[in-house]
Design goal:
It is a single chain. The protein is mainly beta and about 425 residues long. The chain folds into three domains: about 80 residues, Immunoglobulins (Immunoglobulin-like, Sandwich); about 130 residues, Ferric Hydroxamate Uptake Protein, Chain A, domain 1; about 150 residues, Beta Barrel (Porin). It contains five helices and 27 strands. A hairpin with a 7-residue loop joins β13 and β14. The protein is elongated. The N terminus is likely disordered.
Amino acid sequence: MLHTGARRCRSPVSLFLAAACVLMAAGARSLGAQTVGGTVSAQESGAPVVGVLVLLLDTRGTEVARVQSDAEGRYNVIAPTAGAYRLRFLVPGYRPLVSAPLQLAPGAPVEYPLRLIAVSPELLDTLIVEGRPVPAHLSPFYRRRNYGLGRFLTRDEIDRTRAADVSGVVRRLMVLDVGSDPGDGGGRRVGSTRFGRMCPAAVYVNGTFAGMSGEVDIDHIVPLDAVEAVELYRASEIPLDFTARGCGLVSVWSRLSPRDTTGIVRHLALATQAGARLGSGGVRHGRVGLSLAYTFTKAIEIYPSLNIHIGFPNTTPDPAISGWQAIVALRARPLGLETPWYVGTGVSHVQLTGEAGAGVANTSGEGQHHVLLTGLLLPGGAWRAYVEVQLIDPLAVSAAQTSLFIGLARRFF
């Protein structure tokens, strides 16, 4: 067990509670920020569509918030920061839809009503391919696959690529080139590179021409979890079925009944962090490390981390120590999954070595400790900065320790 010298009993706990209040207030302020909402209805009948999954996407196509339409077809999404966003609408029985870019600003709610087009009943039927039922609207995909030209991926094969988006699938197949869009959209361009310039490919969705790559972003049109199949062609391989041609072609087929992702939401983020222990005497016992966050339900994240103790920063006469600290915790977001403030609890295992010094009763040894944590994950795209406060042994008031961390997290999906 690791112990610290005598100091004010309530100092670490009070510091942790004060930090939690500050971080919670910062997270709560984001809820009163920029919003977009509207009513979703059926185009033919005008009736409200209940249970529509509405995803808010940033300029990189990363999901930053999600809601479902209520019994009256209404939805309201809160953006983490001001800026440009798109909305993606998914519901079984209707065609997927992605909005044009929307500019959201604080105190200026945007109203975005829309009408969804129902999928005809015959498209919901199935046919038998290779001994198993597949959606009937995919018959052109399987027919062309028998020709032997191009590359074809079914849903199972897409999953095996472990790609995070459609452009990632294209990149892994190495049939067409993938590059960044030079415009403000932050999307991906697909095509063939000729003389140092990208010649765009044609993009089809469910057999319909959607536009040339660069005019449309394949990662925005259909989310990867709603894709049933993908076919890719070089310019010389494009079948006569497709009238629009370019320097290659991408044909994406969506599942007409998208997977229900509202009950279980999975995200994975890896972070680097640096921190130190805080006390009445100042900053001591610096540490650097890695952490991992895996979201496996709508509310809970598994949060393991490993930190290596280093000799500084140290503003006290305490001797330098070395060792490591491993934490396994569960995190939750009381204000919502995509809001910045989080809290957590878990177990910390510490192993340290060092010489006893002034103000320190014992700086060598190992032990397990209860840990409480709270933090703020700043809004952003794939890369997000964060600040976190940890309270070790909160029930052992005289031995409680408070640590402050700052870090940078990379979200993969």
